[in-house]
Amino acid sequence: MAFFGLFGKKKEETQVASEKQDLDQGLERSRSGLFAKLKLAVAGKSTVDDAVLDHLEEVLVTSDVGVETTLRIIQRIQARVARDKYVGTSELNALLREEIAALMKDPVPMDPAVKPYVIMVVGVNGVGKTTTIGKLAHAFKQEGKNVVLGAADTFRAAAVDQLRIWSERVGVPLVQQGMGADPAAVAYDTVEHARAKGADIVIIDTAGRLHNKVNLMSELTKVRNVMRKVIPDAPHEVLLVLDASTGQNAVEQAREFTKATDVTALALTKLDGTAKGGVAIGISEQFGVPIKYLGVGEGMHHLQLFDKKAFVEALFKE
């Protein structure tokens, strides 16, 4: 399996090993809970029959994979069992890995020819949006890219302050106008500044909710449209940040945001603090939007580019 960085550059072996370890540790709680349930599902059975499949369905649903996605996984396994005639319960783990990986989408790589590449980050308050932006900025800078941040979540003073702290910590410039400013105006100034300075990456923070009667999704549309006055095809990525520890609440947030705006990628945070890692499978499959980043710890380097095979292997690692 080849592991690549944000811009397609192959990672060093030591970096790959470190990220695998972080992913394994981040999914430990999800993996241990899942395996305990799987063992009960196949107890006393030698072949994958209807009873095992019924238990497996319950295991996946209670592991926050989601009902719709679980049914698709069960259908795929039923088809394999019917085709192969005999499938032992000892093979179930490998079978699950294959079928789940087949359902999940690969993230779309960034186009290095697009400059500046504009990322608009959306999501409700409290999911780790600002932290994800800071970690992303760090990762881009480590790859030698010039990054500009835009503080367009102007409805919370804390959001602007947090982003300023991250910009100083990472060492990248921040465009801000303070609390109460027009978010679209901040976004406009940010992309204009980035283009004038020859920046590679622009990351725009946006509001998770508003303190007035303005519709949040309408506000996000306004921010997007104003950026296009400077860069016609901006934003190049709309990144929805979700807190994996909220389980099915994260699914509901994904449903609302994907209805209202053109979400192109997902970032799942706080995987290291939850047993609900299975939600990643359901969200990716159900909404047809690829997971692009995983937050597997609190450190600045604990944001990983998503690799579905590595994720599935870590989740079902024996």
Molecular structure report:
By secondary structure, the chain is of the alpha/beta class. The chain folds into two domains: 26-103, Four Helix Bundle (Hemerythrin (Met), subunit A) (Up-down Bundle); 117-307, P-loop containing nucleotide triphosphate hydrolases (Rossmann fold, 3-Layer(aba) Sandwich). 49% of the residues lie in helices and 12% in strands. The chain has twelve helices and eight strands. The protein has an eight-stranded mixed beta sheet with strand order 3-2-4-1-5-6-7-8, sandwiched between helices. The longest helix has 18 residues, at 67-84.
Trace the largest sheet across and list its strands.
Answer: 3-2-4-1-5-6-7-8
Low-confidence stretches: none
The CATH homologous superfamily of the largest domain is named P-loop containing nucleotide triphosphate hydrolases
**CATH topology (fold) name of the largest domain:** Rossmann fold
Query: What is the CATH architecture descriptor of the largest domain?
Result: 3-Layer(aba) Sandwich
Structural class of the secondary elements?
alpha/beta
The mean pLDDT is 87
Number of helices: 12
Give the number of DSSP strands. 8
Shape, principal axes of CA atoms: elongated
Give the class-level CATH name of the largest domain: Alpha Beta
SSE order, one letter for each helix or strand: HHHHHEHEHEHEHEHEHEEH
Q: Distance between the terminal alpha carbons, to the nearest Å? A: 19 Å
Helix content bin: 40-55%
